[in-house]
Amino acid sequence: MNKKEFKENDSKRYSSKAKRKIVEELRSGMLTIRQCAKQYQVSVRVLQDWNRWYYKTRLLTYFRPKSSLLMEPTVEQLKQQLAVAEAQLAQEKLKNTALETMISVAEKQLKIEIRKKYGSKQSRS
Questions:
Q1: Which residues of the chain, if any, have pLDDT below 50?
Q2: Contact 107, 114 (CB under 8 A)
Q3: Fewest beta carbons within 10 Å, which of 24, 25, 31, 49?
Q4: Whole-model pTM over 0.85
């Protein structure tokens, strides 16, 4: 029997549930890879393959980013965001107009200039 046939026989001798148990023992640190190979009578290479299989089938799902975070927004979502931004802009324009009007009325009633003159220097007190 050549090495390839031996490897296939090793991997087929254990069920996927048994492979998972062996790899979990290996990953938990209870056994080193050499101890595990000796105890379960499989080669180190087969254990490495099983470990790779375990990672791909069991663990990788926990480390993958959520697909919703990577999805590009749809046209409807973009339209909705635009509508919200336009509503906020209209609200801020109204607020700005109200403040400007309030300053103008205060300047007329108090007969002092409230707005800053950009060309003048500040007086020293």
A1: 1-8, 10
A2: yes
A3: 24
A4: no
